[in-house]
Recover the amino acids of this structure.
C-alpha cells in the first residue's frame, strides 16, 4: 500500500507527552537482559588471544598444546575463517579485523580464540597457544603516519583520489576534496584571516556494556546468535557473509544495549564466537573485558586539521579552507571524507575548499562514533570562527548568524539546502538567558554550532491488534535511547488509543523483515514512519471489519478516536465500534487484525545545533569545571520530549569528556597504556552540571509528524564550545583536544611573561 | 532531462565531468542510464552513492522522482553512529 510521508500539521494527544518508559523498571531492578545475561545449557566459555605487538608479521601459530588441554573444546585461528571476500575489500578488512590473517596490525588484534568448559581453562589454553611474531616497525600518530619515512602498513595500498595514480604504497589510503568558488580570490578579499592547526586525540565511545554474545551452531548448519548490537539484521548479514552461511539459517536476537554510540554497528568477535561454536558443536559465550573493548573495538579517529578562514571588516566570510587528516586504524574508510564534508556545513560560503586524507595507523579499526568525524572538524572550524569574530570585534553569535547557511545556500559538501534550522538555533542562543549570565574570575563562556546529515533507511514493522483490543508493535530497530516508548506513543496517536495499551518489542531477525541498524539518528525517525504506515494499514482492516459487522459499505466507515464510526444519513445512528469490540469479533470477521509496513524511510533532513558553555579553569592545576551548559537543537517534532532531552544531554556529556579528559595514550612500543576506566576518564555525574536543553520544533516536511533524528548532532558542538570557553577563560587559544590539566598548564606556561 | 552533479571522487570515473545531463524520471532510471554510459560507476552505484534531491538525501529510495528543475547531487553514501 502506498504511503504518504508528507508532513501534515495536527493536534497530538499522545505524541509530545512524557509517559514513564516501559523498560525502566527492568533496568533499575536488574531484570533487563543485556548481552552477557544470555546463557544456554552446555555453553562453553570463549576467550580471544590478542597481539601484544602494534605491528607484527604472524610467522606461525601452533595451537596443538592448547587443543590437548583437558576441557578445551575448540581452538580457532584465521584458518577457520576462510577468505570468502571474492575481491570485496571491505569484507576482507572486516574478516581480517575479526581475526588477523598475515599480520597483527595493532596491540589487541585477535590472532586466535578458544572455547573451553570454564574461564580458567580457557585462559590457560590461551597461554598454550604459541605465536611466532616477526615484530615490525609501527606508527600510531596520524601526522607521523603520513611522512614518507613512516612504516607502511600495507604495501598494496596506493593513495586513491589523486592523479596521476601514485606508484609507491602509502599510509594515506585516499584523498577526497569538496568545495566551490575560488578560495585564493576569497582570501585576497579578506581584511582578517585566521589560520591555525588543531589536533584531537583518539577517544572511545565508552559504552558501559562491553561487547557480548552467545553463539550456537547446530549440526544441521542452522545457528542462533544472542548479541548486544545496534543492528541485529546487519550482524546477521555480516556474520553469514563472513562464515559462508545462508542468511535464513542464522537467527539473531538483540539484547538490551548498554550503550553503543556507533561502536556496535560493526561485528567484532561475533563471527569468532560462531566459528568456535561451529567447531566445538556447543554454544559459546564470548564477552569482552574492558581491556579488550578499549584495545580492540570502536575508537574514533585521532585527527590533525589545518583551518584557514578569512573575513571582511563587515563580518562577512570571504573564504574558508581546511585540510583534515583522520586516522582509520589499519583499514581504509571514509572518516576524513566525512570530516571534510561536515567542516563548514553550518555556513553560507562563496568560496570554500576542504580536503580529507584517510590515514592508516597501527591502532584499532576506527568505528563510527555519534555523528562520526563531525565533532573534530567542528572543533577546528568553530575555534577559528570564534577567533575571527574576536579579531573583527563582533559578537560570536552575531558573526555566525551573519554567515549562517539558510534555505538556498550551496552547502560546503555540494547540495543546495532546503529549509534548515541553523538560523533558529543561533537566534535562540542569542536571546537565551545563559548568554547574559555574569561570569567570575577564571571563568569563560564559549559557544559553537554543529551539523550532522541524519539518514533513514530500510525499515519494517508489524502492528498486531490483539483479541482484547490492545496492540503489540514489533520493530526491527534496536532501542538505544527510548524508542520503544516513542514508537508506542506513535502507534497510540495514529490508532487513537491510550499509550498504555500499546506494547512495543524489538523482534528478532527470524520474525520480521530486514531493518537497517539504529545509526545515523534514524531509529525513531524511520521506525515511527513505518509504525504510522502499519497503523494506517491496520485501521483499514478494522474499518473493513466494522463494515462487515454493520453490514454496510467500508466507504461509510471512518476511524476516529480509536473507534469505527458509521457515517451517512442511513447509518449515523449506529453506535461506534471500539477497537476492543472489533478485536473481540475478529475471529468471526476474517481472523487476526494486523498492519504491516515495509519501506525505505528516506528524507530524514539535515540537523543543526548550537551549544553554550561556561567553564572555570584553575590556573594552578589546569583543571576545568563545567559550570553551565545549554543545548539548543531542532527535533522536528519531539515524540517523547524526555528522550529528546536525554539525547541532547547525552551527546553533550560525551562531548565534555572528549573535550577535557578522554584520550588513548600509547607508549613508545605502540601499546595502549590506559585501557580501563581508571586511566581513561569519562565524565561521571559529579563532573557535570544539569545540562539545560531547548528543543526547537521545525517540522521535517518528509515525515508525517515532522520528526527529525536527534541522536547524533548533540555531540558535534561540545569540543569547540568548551575549547572556546576555556580559551576565553585563560586567554590562550586551545588547539589540542583533550584539554586535560597538563595540556592547559603547558599552554599557559608557553605564554610569554608580561 | 535532469542535470546531475557528482562529488569529486566520482568525477574521475566519468571522464572528469562534474556535471552530467541525464534523461531520467526517477533515481532508478538515473542510475541505470549512468551505469550504461559509464560502466565504471556500476560498483559505486551499488555500494557507495546516495542522491541528494533539493538538499534531501536519499540512500535507497530508487523510486524517488526527479523533477526537471530539481538540484540533484550524487554524494557519498553516509555512515552514522
Amino acid at each position: 500500500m502506498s504511503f504518504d510521508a508528507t508532513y501534515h500539521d495536527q493536534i497530538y494527544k499522545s505524541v509530545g507527552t512524557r509517559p514513564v518508559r516501559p523498560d525502566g523498571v527492568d533496568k533499575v531492578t536488574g531484570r533487563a537482559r543485556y548481552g552477557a545475561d544470555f546463557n544456554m545449557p552446555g555453553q562453553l566459555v570463549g576467550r580471544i588471544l590478542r597481539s601484544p605487538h602494534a605491528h607484527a608479521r604472524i610467522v606461525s601459530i601452533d595451537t596443538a598444546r592448547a587443543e590437548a588441554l583437558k576441557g578445551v573444546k575448540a581452538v580457532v585461528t584465521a584458518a577457520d575463517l576462510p577468505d570468502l571476500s571474492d575481491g570485496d575489500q571491505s569484507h576482507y578488512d572486516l574478516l581480517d579485523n575479526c581475526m588477523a590473517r598475515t599480520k597483527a596490525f595493532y596491540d589487541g588484534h585477535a590472532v586466535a580464540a578458544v572455547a573451553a568448559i570454564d574461564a580458567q581453562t580457557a585462559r590457560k589454553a590461551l597461554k598454550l597457544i604459541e605465536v611466532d611474531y616477526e615484530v615490525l616497525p609501527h606508527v600510531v600518530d596520524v601526522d607521523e603516519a603520513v611522512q614518507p619515512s613512516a612504516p607502511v602498513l600495507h604495501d598494496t595500498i596506493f593513495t586513491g583520489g589523486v592523479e596521476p595514480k601514485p606508484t609507491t604504497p602509502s599510509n594515506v589510503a585516499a584523498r577526497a576534496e569538496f568545495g566551490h568558488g575560488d578560495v585564493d580570490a576569497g582570501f585576497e578579499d579578506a581584511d582578517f584571516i585566521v589560520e591555525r592547526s588543531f589536533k584531537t586525540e583518539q577517544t572511545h565511545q565508552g559504552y558501559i556494556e562491553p561487547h557480548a554474545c552467545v553463539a550456537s551452531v547446530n549440526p544441521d548448519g542452522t545457528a542462533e546468535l544472542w548479541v548486544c548490537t545496534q543492528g541485529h539484521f546487519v550482524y546477521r548479514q555480516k556474520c553469514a557473509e563472513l562464515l559462508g552461511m545462508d542468511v535464513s539459517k542464522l537467527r539473531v536476537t538483540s539484547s538490551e544495549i548498554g550503550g553503543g554510540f556507533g561502536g556496535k554497528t560493526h561485528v567484532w568477535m561475533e563471527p569468532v564466537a560462531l566459528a568456535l561454536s561451529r567447531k566445538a558443536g556447543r554454544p559459546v559465550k564470548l564477552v569482552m573485558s574492558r581491556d579488550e573493548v578499549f584495545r580492540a573495538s570502536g575508537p574514533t579517529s585521532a585527527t590533525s586539521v589545518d583551518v584557514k578562514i578569512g573575513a571582511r571588516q563587515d563580518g562577512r566570510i570571504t573564504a574558508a579552507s581546511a585540510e583534515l587528516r583522520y586516522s582509520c586504524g589499519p583499514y581504509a574508510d571514509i572518516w576524513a571524507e566525512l570530516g571534510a564534508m561536515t567542516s563548514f556545513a553550518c555556513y553560507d560560503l562563496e568560496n570554500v575548499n576542504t580536503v580529507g586524507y584517510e590515514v592508516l595507523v597501527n591502532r584499532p579499526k576506527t568505528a563510527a562514533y555519534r555523528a562520526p568525524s563531525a565533532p573534530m572538524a567542528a572543533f577546528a572550524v568553530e575555534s577559528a570562527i570564534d577567533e575571527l569574530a574576536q579579531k573583527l570585534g563582533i559578537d560570536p553569535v552575531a558573526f555566525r548568524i551573519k554567515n549562517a547557511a539558510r534555505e538556498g545556500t550551496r552547502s560546503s559538501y555540494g547540495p543546495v539546502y532546503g529549509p534548515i534550522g541553523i538560523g533558529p538555533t543561533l537566534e535562540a542562543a542569542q536571546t537565551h538567558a545563559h548568554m547574559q549570565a555574569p561570569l567570575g574570575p577564571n571563568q569563560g563562556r564559549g559557544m559553537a554550532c554543529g551539523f550532522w546529515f541524519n539518514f533513514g533507511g530500510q525499515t519494517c514493522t508489524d502492528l498486531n491488534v490483539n483479541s482484547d483490543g490492545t496492540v503489540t508493535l514489533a520493530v526491527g530497530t534496536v532501542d538505544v535511547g527510548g524508542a520503544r516508548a516513542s514508537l508506542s506513543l506513535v502507534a497510540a496517536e495514529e490508532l487513537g488509543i491510550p499509550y498504555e495499551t500499546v506494547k512495543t518489542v524489538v523482534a528478532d531477525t527470524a520474525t520480521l523483515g530486514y531493518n537497517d541498524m539504529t545509526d545515523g539518528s534514524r531509529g525513531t525517525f524511520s521506525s515511527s514512519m513505518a509504525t504510522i504506515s502499519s497503523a494506517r494499514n491496520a485501521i483499514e482492516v478494522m474499518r473493513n471489519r466494522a463494515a462487515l459487522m454493520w453490514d454496510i459499505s467500508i466507504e461509510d466507515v471512518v476511524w476516529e478516536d480509536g473507534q469505527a464510526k458509521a457515517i451517512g444519513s442511513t447509518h449515523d445512528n449506529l453506535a461506534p465500534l471500539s477497537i476492543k469490540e472489533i478485536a473481540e469479533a475478529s475471529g468471526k470477521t476474517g481472523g487476526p487484525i494486523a498492519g504491516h509496513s515495509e519501506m525505505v524511510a528516506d528524507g530524514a533532513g539535515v540537523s543543526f545545533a548550537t551549544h553554550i558553555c561556561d567553564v572555570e579553569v584553575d590556573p594552578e592545576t589546569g583543571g576545568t569545571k563545567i559550570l553551565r551548559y545549554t543545548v539548543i537543537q531542532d527535533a522536528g517534532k519531539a515524540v517523547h520530549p524526555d528522550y529528546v532531552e536525554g539525547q541532547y544531554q547525552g551527546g553533550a556529556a560525551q562531548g565534555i569528556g572528549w573535550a577535557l579528559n578522554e584520550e588513548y595514550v600509547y607508549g613508545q612500543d605502540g601499546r595502549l597504556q590506559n585501557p580501563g576506566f581508571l586511566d581513561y576518564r569519562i565524565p561521571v555525574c559529579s563532573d557535570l552540571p544539569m545540562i539545560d536543553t531547548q528543543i526547537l520544533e521545525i517540522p521535517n516536511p518528509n515525515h508525517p509528524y515532522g520528526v527529525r533524528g536527534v541522536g547524533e548532532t548533540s555531540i558535534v558542538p561540545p569540543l569547540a564550545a568548551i575549547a572556546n570557553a576555556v580559551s576565553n577563560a585563560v586567554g590562550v587559544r586551545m588547539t589540542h583536544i583533550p584539554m586535560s590539566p597538563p595540556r592547559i598548564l603547558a599552554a599557559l606556561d608557553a605564554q610569554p611573561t608580561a | 532531462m535532469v542535470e546531475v552533479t557528482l562529488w569529486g571522487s566520482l568525477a574521475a570515473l566519468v571522464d572528469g565531468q562534474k556535471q552530467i545531463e541525464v534523461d531520467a524520471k526517477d533515481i532508478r532510471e538515473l542510475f541505470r542510464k549512468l551505469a550504461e554510459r559509464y560502466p565504471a560507476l556500476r560498483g559505486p552505484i551499488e555500494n557507495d552513492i546516495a542522491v541528494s534531491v533539493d538538499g534531501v538525501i536519499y540512500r535507497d529510495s530508487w523510486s524517488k522522482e526527479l523533477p526537471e528543475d530539481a538540484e540533484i547531487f550524487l554524494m557519498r553514501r553516509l555512515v552514522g553512529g
In short: Chain A touches chain B through 49 residues (CB under 8 Å). Residues 24-32+456-601 of chain A form a domain with the Aldehyde Oxidoreductase; domain 4 fold (CATH 3.30.365.10).
